[in-house]
Design brief:
alpha+beta; Nuclear Transport Factor 2, Chain: A; six-stranded mixed beta sheet
Length: 117
């Protein structure tokens, strides 16, 4: 598997407003996702709901980019910058690192690391 190409395509889809399409295409049915040290969410249905809730909370995207990325075997790393205004009026500017574990062309584990300020 060319995980560099898969990760790059997934990131590009997110950056071009196709995050949910990327989720359906690239995430395994038994995917586990985790925010920082919060409890992991298991299964595609639970994670789909969390992703939908997140995107529904955004009023306006000001900027989003991947500053750097790397792949080591079946694990990919990407450093993101996002600037958005949430529907509650809060403007969030955040940097985060996403670490993805791939298997058979699908993301089976993803963890986000960021500072909540």
């Amino acid at each position: 598997m060319d995980y560099t190409a898969l990760d790059s395509k997934l990131n590009e889809m997110v950056l071009t407003g196709q995050a949910m399409q990327a989720f359906e295409e690239f995430y395994a049915e038994d995917v586990v996702m985790q925010e920082n040290n919060e409890e992991p969410r298991a299964g595609k249905a639970a994670n789909r709901k969390a992703e939908e809730d997140f995107f529904a909370s955004v009023a306006e995207w000001h900027e989003g980019r991947v500053d750097t990325s790397a792949v080591n075997g079946d694990t990919s790393f990407s450093q993101w910058y996002m600037d958005m205004t949430l529907k509650n009026g809060y403007r969030a500017k955040m940097a985060q690192v996403a670490v993805r574990k791939w298997k058979d062309g699908k993301v089976v584990h993803e963890r986000f690391f960021y500072h909540k300020g």
